[in-house]
Amino acid sequence: MSDTNDINNTEVIGDSVYTYFRSGFTSIRPIEDNDKIPLFCPICAECMTSGYDDSYYRNYTCCYECATIWAEPDRERWKLGYRPDHSEIENELKIRRARCCSFSF
Ligand SMILES: [Zn+2]
User: Fold this and answer.
1) Which residues sit opposite 16 in a β-bridge?
2) Distance from first CA to last CA of the chain, Å, rounded?
3) Is 91 in a helix, a strand, or coil?
4) Distance between Cα 57 and ligand 1 center (Å)
5) Greatest CA span in the chain, whole angstroms?
6) Higher pLDDT, residue 98 or 6
């Protein structure tokens, strides 16, 4: 590996960061994309498949369901770092899984 003393120059070209090393090689890596939405909610660990999950994740860093239950009712507390404990999450997941989905034709 290289150390930071070996770095000669760094520049951004397009979507990539080019780091030029004095030893002669160049490292090219993508710019960090902090807007990525994870596949699973960081709170409940459920897959984020709802059409609302993207926008709720950007606001609360959790899925739509977690946001409406824990984040939105007390936004200030959420922004200060409150998160539900394991038992609260487990209870909520039981409720979600118990929801009945019926179809009639
Ligand atoms: Zn969630």
Assistant:
1) 13, 30
2) 64
3) helix
4) 9
5) 71
6) 98
Report CA(102)–ligand 1 centroid distance (Å): 23
Residues 31-72 pLDDT 10s: 776 678 899 999 999 999 888 999 999 999 999 999 999 999
CA of 68 to the centre of ligand 1 (A): 10
Question: How remote is the CA of residue 98 from the centroid of ligand 1, in Å?
Answer: 16
Phi/psi region, residue 47 (left: phi>0; alpha: psi -120 to 50; beta: rest), is beta
For residue 94, the CA-to-ligand 1 centroid distance in Å is 13
pLDDT score recorded for residue 1? 47
pTM here is 0.64
User: Which has more pLDDT, 2 or 64?
Assistant: 64
What's the gap in Å between 46 CA and the centre of ligand 1? 6
H-helix or E-strand spanning residue 28:
strand 26-30
> 75 C-alpha to center of ligand 1: Å?
16
